[in-house]
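Sharing a chain and its predicted structure for anyone who wants a worked example. Both blocks are below, sequence first, tokens second.
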Amino acid sequence: MDARAAAGVARAYAAEVFASEEISQLGLEEAIYDPEMDEWRITVGFARPWDQPGSVGARLGLKSPRTYKVVHIDNPTQVVTSITERLPWDSKS
């Protein structure tokens, strides 16, 4: 699997898993291949209704305007193995 295929798997997975939260602006943020684990770590970003500028959390500075998730994909099987939180200021996945 190459980075484009892994990004497609990650976007489709995030869209399905977070569909009930009415996410918008889903996009690829970062693609990293880990040869030791033979996995892709694809960071996707999206907005949730409560992240928007008019929400209470955003007005108080408690929420980022985007949510970042790292989708972990097993390279040989192309199966998503986990999804983890990625904070905007965190440089590690």
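Comments welcome. The radius of gyration is 14 Å.
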